[in-house]
C-alpha cells in the first residue's frame, strides 16, 4: 500500500533507504489494521506508532547531519518541517485511538503518507540536486 516510488529517490543512498523504511513502517500499520485475526490491536498499534515516531526522529537527525555536512542552504526551513511532523506525532492521543482504532489509524496513515510524499518531493529531492 505505502511504498517508495522511483520519483521519490533523492539519489542519496542513506536518505533513500531510510525513506524506504518509513514507508515500510506505515505499511505495517496498514496491514495490522486489516488483519482480522487479531481481536484487540491496541498494543500492537501503539508499538508500530512508537516505532514510526522513533524511526522518524532518527531519520530526521541523519538527514539534518547530512545537510550540514554539505552546507545545504535550506537547512533551517527544512528542519522546521521535520519539527512540525514530530510535534504532530508527539501530540497524538493514544486513548482516542483506542476508541475507534481503525478510523483514527487510517486518518493517521493518511497524514503520514501525505506528509512523507509532499516532504520528499518538495524538500528532500532538492538535497540531492
Ligand atoms: Fe527531510
TrEMBL record:
InterPro entries: Haemerythrin_Fe_BS, Hemerythrin, Hemerythrin-like, Hemerythrin-like_sf, Hemerythrin_metal-bd. Residues 10-123 form the Hemerythrin-like domain. PROSITE patterns: HEMERYTHRINS (PS00550). The keyword Phosphoprotein does not apply. Keywords: Iron, Metal-binding. Coiled coil: none annotated. It comes from the Bacteria. GO terms for molecular function: metal ion binding. Belongs to the hemerythrin family. This is Hemerythrin-like metal-binding protein. It comes from Lachnoclostridium phytofermentans (strain ATCC 700394 / DSM 18823 / ISDg).
Amino acid at each position: 500500500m505505502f511504498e517508495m516510488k522511483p520519483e521519490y529517490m533523492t539519489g542519496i543512498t542513506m536518505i533513500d533507504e531510510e525513506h524506504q523504511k518509513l514507508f515500510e513502517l506505515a505499511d505495517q500499520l496498514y496491514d495490522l489494521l486489516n488483519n482480522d485475526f487479531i481481536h484487540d490491536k491496541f498494543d500492537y498499534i501503539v508499538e508500530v506508532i512508537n516505532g514510526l515516531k522513533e524511526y522518524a526522529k532518527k531519520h530526521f537527525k541523519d538527514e539534518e547531519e547530512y545537510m550540514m555536512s554539505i552546507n545545504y542552504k535550506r537547512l533551517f526551513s527544512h528542519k522546521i518541517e521535520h519539527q512540525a511532523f514530530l510535534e504532530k506525532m508527539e501530540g497524538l492521543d493514544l486513548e482516542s485511538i483506542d476508541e475507534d482504532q481503525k478510523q483514527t489509524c487510517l486518518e493517521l496513515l493518511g497524514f503520514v503518507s501525505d506528509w512523507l510524499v509532499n516532504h520528499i518531493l518538495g524538500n528532500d529531492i532538492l538535497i540531492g540536486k
